[in-house]
């Protein structure tokens, strides 16, 4: 049995980790932390857990946390994660970091989009945790940088096209819409019910969103050349889910039939990517609570443009489900353990 700690357990991804790990046969959750709810039972913060997980939330003291766990999930805001990850690694622990702190391999790029990186030495050890493109490196990794939710939906949506050189890599436009749990559980005016529920709005427009460099880093590696994208996130009045609609100019003539066949071949055997049959489109409703990414590639018959639509649950494939998938790979468990039956009938 592997002892696991969740640091930042009183947040949305923390709750989702508890939900998933509770049903994982090889894991015991032994330590949960919170900043404001330390001393309370986690089931008092999230009554849904009552009778299933009643651990008391602790203050984040890295050495004490490490004494209780072999694997530590850091579900903290960026910056707070890199303040504690070095201690966990020094004490020999495996870390799956859900924050953005170890995703960008270049500390200067991190500095330009976030702030000065506090721990550049460990950036070299971090593996970007998107199993469908980095599986071999994640196996046995000690520090996994779990991808952002928007990047997961966009990179999985574009990987087959870029790997096969089928689109102009400089022509990519991605519009993504997210539910509000993407912004975390802490109080913010923008997340208030009345603010969100009054409409559907874009934000971070014009290359201003911090996921832009993360998406560009990974897509450039797939394309074998540096590229820039136009990425526009949107906030939707729903609690969870991300739908990305991605557009690109084909480099070679394409048909929907050929693209579907290419995607089916590329993702054959992938347990959590479902390529939809021609004529079907993804919906956040069909992936809700699950670790699936549903993808539909097609060609706009009028303009010739390639369009890919992808859907994930931001809290599962976009965060905690993918983090457990990464833990399974890093620790030598079957990749789908604890994730297979998630929310098929929510
Ligand atoms: N929400 C999402 O869809 C996704 C989130 N992520 C990333 O995962 C991480 C966690 O996200 P999420 O769960 O949504 O965030 P939340 O805001 O819901 O939760 C954050 C957690 O971290 C704790 N915390 C905050 N600041 C500190 C601090 N300085 N020291 C110690 N603990 C602290 C909070 O404690 P308290 O409750 O006491 O404030 C809470 O437990 C973030 O980096 C986020 O960007 C990644 C992919 C998707
Ligand atoms: C709706 C919403 O606000 N979403 C968040 C992204 C959430 C996420 O996955 O971001 P990190 O993991 O990189 O922190 C945002 O736009 O900042």
UniProtKB/TrEMBL annotation:
| A GO molecular-function descriptor | NAD binding
The metabolic or biological pathway listed in the UniProt record of this protein is:
Amino-acid biosynthesis; L-arginine biosynthesis; N(2)-acetyl-L-ornithine from L-glutamate: step 3/4
Q: Main subcellular localization, coarse class? A: cytoplasm
Residue runs in coiled coils: none
Quote the EC number. Answer: 1.2.1.38
Q: Which residues form the Semialdehyde dehydrogenase NAD-binding domain?
A: 3-141
Q: Which GO cellular component terms, listed alphabetically, does the Swiss-Prot or TrEMBL entry include?
A: cytoplasm
Which residues does the entry assign to the active site, renumbered to this chain? 149
Top enzyme class, one word, equals oxidoreductase
GO BP terms: namely:
L-arginine biosynthetic process
Query: Which reaction(s) does the protein catalyse, per the Swiss-Prot or TrEMBL entry?
Result: N-acetyl-L-glutamate 5-semialdehyde + phosphate + NADP(+) = N-acetyl-L-glutamyl 5-phosphate + NADPH + H(+)
User: What InterPro entries would the database entry show?
Assistant: AGPR (IPR050085), AGPR_AS (IPR023013), AGPR_dimerisation_dom (IPR058924), AGPR_type-1 (IPR000706), NAD(P)-bd_dom_sf (IPR036291), Semialdehyde_DH_NAD-bd (IPR000534)
Instruction: Tell me where it resides.
Output: Cytoplasm
Q: Which UniProt keywords apply?
A: Amino-acid biosynthesis, Arginine biosynthesis, Cytoplasm, NADP, Oxidoreductase
HAMAP family linked to this entry:
ArgC_type1
Sum up the protein's function in the record's words: Catalyzes the NADPH-dependent reduction of N-acetyl-5-glutamyl phosphate to yield N-acetyl-L-glutamate 5-semialdehyde.
> Family per UniProt?
Belongs to the NAGSA dehydrogenase family. Type 1 subfamily.
What is the protein name given in its UniProt record? N-acetyl-gamma-glutamyl-phosphate reductase
Please give the organism.
Oryzomonas rubra
Instruction: Provide the organism lineage as a comma list.
Output: Bacteria, Pseudomonadati, Thermodesulfobacteriota, Desulfuromonadia, Geobacterales
Q: Which gene encodes it?
A: argC
């Amino acid at each position: 049995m592997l002892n696991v700690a969740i640091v930042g357990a009183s947040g949305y991804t923390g709750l989702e980790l508890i939900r998933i790990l509770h049903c994982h046969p090889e894991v015991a959750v032994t330590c949960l932390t919170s900043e404001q709810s330390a001393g309370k039972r986690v089931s008092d913060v999230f009554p849904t857990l009552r009778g299933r997980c009643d651990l008391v939330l602790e203050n984040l003291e890295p050495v004490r946390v490490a004494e209780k766990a072999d694997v530590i999930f850091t579900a903290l805001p960026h910056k707070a994660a890199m303040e504690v990850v070095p201690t966990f690694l020094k004490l020999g622990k495996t870390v799956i970091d859900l924050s953005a702190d170890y995703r960008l391999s270049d500390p200067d790029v991190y500095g330009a989009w976030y702030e000065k990186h506090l721990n550049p030495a460990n950036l070299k050890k971090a593996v970007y945790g998107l199993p469908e493109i980095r599986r071999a490196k994640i196996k046995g990794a000690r520090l996994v940088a779990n991808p952002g939710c928007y990047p997961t939906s966009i990179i999985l949506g574009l990987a087959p096209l870029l790997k096969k050189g089928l689109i102009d890599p400089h022509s990519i436009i991605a519009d993504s819409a997210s539910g509000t749990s993407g912004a975390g559980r802490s109080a913010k005016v923008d997340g208030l019910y009345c603010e969100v529920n009054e409409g559907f709005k874009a934000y971070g427009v014009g290359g201003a969103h911090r996921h832009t460099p993360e998406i560009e880093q990974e897509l450039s590696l797939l394309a074998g050349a540096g590229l820039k994208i136009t990425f526009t996130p949107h906030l939707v009045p729903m609690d969870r889910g991300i739908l990305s609609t991605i557009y690109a100019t084909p480099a070679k003539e394409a048909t929907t039939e050929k693209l579907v066949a290419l995607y089916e071949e590329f993702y054959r055997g992938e347990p959590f990517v479902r390529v939809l049959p021609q004529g079907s489109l993804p919906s956040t409703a069909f992936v809700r609570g699950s670790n699936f990414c549903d993808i539909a590639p097609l060609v706009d018959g009028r303009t010739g443009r390639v369009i890919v639509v992808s859907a994930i649950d931001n809290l599962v494939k976009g965060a905690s489900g993918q983090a457990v998938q990464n833990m399974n790979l890093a620790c030598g468990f079957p990749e789908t353990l604890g994730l297979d039956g998630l929310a098929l009938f929510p």
